[in-house]
Amino acid sequence: MRRDLEQADVVSVKVDSVSERVWRRINRPHPSLVLERVLDGISEFSSSYKGTLISETMLVRGVNTDKGVYRDIATFLRGLRLSKAYISVPIRPPAESFVEPPTERELVEAYEEFREILGSGRVELLNMPEPPPRLVSGDPVAWLLNTCAVHPLRYGEAVEALVGRVEDPVGLIEGLVRENLLLKTEYGGTMFLVRNFRRRQ
């Protein structure tokens, strides 16, 4: 895998914890994986990679939102040849109900800890919603189902994206909901569409 990634211009590594217990709670890895070996692999890759290496750390309230945890993660990241370390928060409906974004105070503490260890200008927050989709490619139904299969999509943004592509965007979406292909779920006061992989045949 490291050899294949050497060919990429930009590689992002996900480091949500350097603690085995916390890592398993957040990332739910395959039981055969061992965090120490994963981190060793990231370090090895960093030492030889010639492209742009960035990292992302997702903060989950009550799981990895502690000053000691921030410090341990940032200390590990300092050993990598990183261009930028991103700190992110859950902005879409999570797979597990216990997942909540950190408080503003926790987010600021994480940012300050990362900045102190990694240096000013190498840390950035990803705590705002991503921009809405700009282009619906191919069949609108397939586009919507495929997009929602990758990540939840805001209902309003789905409607806007389909305007001009189909006669009745809301009718199309609600039809897919009735067919049990899409589910509507509210998170953070916003309605999202998610792909229903448990659809009964």
Task: Write the SSE topology.
Blueprint: H1 2-5, E1 10-14, H2 20-27, H3 35-48, E2 52-58, H4 67-78, E3 84-88, H5 104-118, E4 123-126, H6 140-150, E5 153-154, H7 155-162, H8 169-178, E6 182-187, E7 190-195
Parallel strand pairs: 1-2, 2-3, 3-4
Antiparallel strand pairs: 5-7, 6-7
Helix pairs in contact: 4-5
Please, could you describe this protein's structure?
The chain is an alpha/beta fold and 201 residues long. Helix content is 41%, strand content 17%. The protein has eight helices and seven strands, in the order αβααβαβαβαβααββ. It has a four-stranded parallel beta sheet, covered by helices on one side. Strands 5-7-6 form a three-stranded antiparallel beta sheet. Helix 4 (67-78) links the parallel strand 2 (52-58) and strand 3 (84-88). Helix 4 (67-78) packs parallel to helix 5. It starts with a helix and ends in a 6-residue tail after the last strand. The model has no long low-confidence stretch (mean pLDDT 87).
The order of strands across the largest sheet is: 1-2-3-4
The succession of helices and strands, N to C, reads HEHHEHEHEHEHHEE
Poorly predicted runs of 5 or more residues: none
Beta fraction: 15-25%
Instruction: Work out the radius of gyration.
Output: 19 Å
Helix/sheet category? alpha/beta
Q: Globular, elongated, flat, extended or rod-shaped: what is the shape?
A: globular
Name the helicity range. Answer: 40-55%
How can the largest sheet be summarized?
A: 4 strands, parallel
Q: What's the β-strand tally?
A: 7
Number of H/I helices: 8
| Arithmetic mean pLDDT | 87
